Amino acid sequence: MHARAEVTLWTREEDGSYQAEKNGWKLHVKWTPEPPKGGEWGFSWEAEGPDGQKAKSAELIEEIEMAMVEAEAQAGGGAVEKKDDAAALRARLPDAVRRGARG
After folding, report:
1. What pLDDT does residue 6 have?
2. Cα–Cα dist 66/35, whole Å
3. Among candidates 91, 90, 72, which has minimal Cα distance to 82?
4. How are strands ordered across the β-sheet holding 42-48?
5. What is the pLDDT of residue 87?
6. In terms of C-beta density within 10 A (0-12 exposed, 13-18 middle, 19 or more buried), how is residue 16 classed?
7. What is the pTM of this model?
8. Is 59 exposed, middle or buried (0-12, 13-18, 19+ CB in 10 A)?
9. One digit per residue, pLDDT tens: the chain, 103 residues?
10. SS3 for 21?
């Protein structure tokens, strides 16, 4: 089963990033381009809770939808109930995809 982001929650910002609010959490997903000398590229997410708690992705994520799923999981509810569940879904991806490597 593939977890899906609640795409209707997300709004594209002028800088190309995406923001959403869920269960009082402010969510933000942004793109990090490949550095000029090579390296990792992908999407990352940050979340701020209603009581000021903060969380962010531990690594860059190749697929924007998976970054959104993880951010939504941090806020609770939806297709993935816990951040750990989203991480387990990503763990099933091939190593090259998780690292953001190009084929």
Report:
1. 76
2. 22
3. 72
4. 11-12, 18-22, 25-32, 42-48, 54-56
5. 59
6. exposed
7. 0.69
8. exposed
9. 456 667 678 999 999 999 999 999 999 999 999 999 989 999 999 999 999 999 999 999 999 999 999 999 998 854 444 445 555 655 554 444 444 433 3
10. strand
* Cβ-contact 25, 75 below 8 angstroms: yes
Whether 21 and 27 have beta carbons less than 8 Å apart is answered as: yes
Residue 43 CA: distances (Å) to CA of 7, 27, 46, 65: 15, 13, 10, 9
Q: Report, in angstroms and rounded to the nearest whole number, the Rg of the chain calculated over CA atoms.
A: 13
Query: For residue 58, what are its two tokens?
Result: 């531990």
CA distance 41 to 101: 8
Q: Which two tokens stand for residue 15?
A: 């800088």
